[in-house]
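Justification of resources, computational component.

The compute hours requested in this renewal are based largely on the per-chain cost of generating structure records like the one below. Each record pairs the submitted sequence with a full structure-token output. That output is archived, and it is also reused by downstream analysis tasks.
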Amino acid sequence: MKIFSLLILLLSNAVFAWGQRISVQDYIRQYKDIAIAEMHRTGVPASIKLAQGILESESGNGNLVKRSNNHFGIKCKSYWTGEKVYHDDDERDECFRKYDHAEDSWRDHSDFLRNSERYAALFRLKKTDYKGWAHGLKKAGYATNPRYPNILIWQIEKYNLHQYDLMEYTPDEASLVENETKVPADLDAPVTSPTTSQSAEQVFDIGAKTKRNGLSAIYAVAGTSLLAIATKHNLSLSRLLEYNDLDADGLLEEDSWIYLERKHKFAAQESVVADANESYHSIAQSHGVQLEKLLEYNGVTEDDEVAAGTTVWLKPNTQAAVTTSGTIIHKVQPKEGLYAISRKNNVPVSVIREINQLTSDQLQVGQQLIISK
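The structure output for this chain reads:
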């Protein structure tokens, strides 16, 4: 009985650890030492290895890396004699290498580049030339995505990864990787639990395809690769970005719904009250509305801040009420100014000032303005 209880405890701990999300920053802290060590051993810049690891493994959160410790998506090849796992990539059930330890994957990636003739030109570049390496990898055929070099460069500069290209390697411990992910022998990857901030009505499987606002979508957390999402769901990256009103194609900076088809022009409900720290983009994503349309309904731009308590319209604005006499009245919302009201109602500011005999542009929340008589 004691042995059985111990096995249950170990299994529970393994599943719990499996379900934890790794942030990009934690991933960098965990693997920077081996990236530096490999740079001095083989010449592959530490910044490039870290950027590729972040992208290919989704910061250590991808299904493949959890099942195999394969951080770089290296496929079996005919000469591979080690353990294997099968994973859907460009085709279904492709063969990928499985490693006992994360360190093995990082070393094998270095050797894979170093020993391949098609990457030979890269090793004539300086270790500090991360831009040359990024473009060289794409040119040599490492990735098919035309934006691959820009994604790597964006990650390197965003997270200051090029600082590690200048560092010397001085090992302090026998293992270069702290707290590496252990691959359970006979477990399939469990579904990650929703974050504690979600309400009971919002329980869903992170990364699982579902329906949101009548549209095919997934919920992705910060650090998830947009390229990985597009590839998994047979979409071009440009199409995925278009569907979600995104112009950056690296990693998600915050948790978000990601739609796999074009969003609606308006939502079923008329409006929503903004919470703290929301943006017009996050509101559009939450309610499945095209950002351009949402901005149009509210007479704002994407860069405008949304104050907590602001009413955000999800369909054509009906706030401007028509009275029985035909007079149109507008009720002022929090953080709403004359120019926003003017844009919403297609009435010049000068006309609103004149009709309401305003002597300044200062408005009060709840104040009623005559838009037209």
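Strands lie at 84-87, 94-97, 210-212, 215-220, 256-259, 271-273, 311-313, 321-322, 328-331, 368-372. Confidence is low (pLDDT under 50) at residues 1-18, 172-176, 178-204, 321-325.
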